[in-house]
Design brief:
Elements (H helix, E strand, L loop, with lengths): L26 E6 L2 E6 L4 H4 L16 H7 L2 H6 L30 H7 L18 H10 L8
Antiparallel strand pairs: 1-2
Length: about 150
């Protein structure tokens, strides 16, 4: 089966070292303050975007296992000042209850403050991302009513 890279439609699918959804090492383990904790090592496209109704198979490629392993290393957590009582890191918190909601507020409130402080800004949103559409970003940029120096 050929997979479409849902997060960058023009690029190939990149796996995490060949890790597949049916691999026994999908669950990682880390020791925090002497206690073993488990975390999910990455997600398949159908797990990450369940609302998209992507076809599911017994062995989908898994993405993000490497980053989950990295952020759950005790020395990385220590360097980032993450307390041991904070749960292991999982992409998108791993709760599986995601929905994409259009919200006006988002982080839009901070941009006028940054502008007033003289901080230059650049706005970018991937136009080939199938999971997080750029249409919402376009709308709030338009609503800021900033002058456009150079249109796309």
């Amino acid at each position: 089966m050929t997979w479409l890279n849902w997060y960058d439609l023009y690029r190939p699918v990149y796996g995490s070292g060949g890790l597949r959804s049916d691999h026994p090492e999908r669950i990682g383990k880390t020791v925090l303050n002497g206690v073993e904790h488990k975390y999910r090592r990455g997600y398949t496209f159908s797990e990450y975007t369940p609302w998209a109704n992507l076809p599911k198979t017994d062995s989908e490629p898994v993405f993000g296992a490497g980053i989950a392993d990295y952020f759950n290393k005790p020395e990385v957590r220590e360097a980032l000042n993450i307390w041991d009582k904070v749960q292991p890191w999982e992409e998108c918190n791993g709760n599986g209850n995601w929905t994409y909601n259009y919200t006006r507020e988002g982080s839009m409130w901070i941009y006028p403050i940054l502008k007033e402080a003289g901080i230059r800004q650049i706005f970018f949103s991937g136009d080939t991302d199938g999971a997080v559409p750029f249409s919402g970003t376009r709308q709030w940029i338009k609503e800021l009513n900033y002058p456009i120096r150079r249109p796309w």
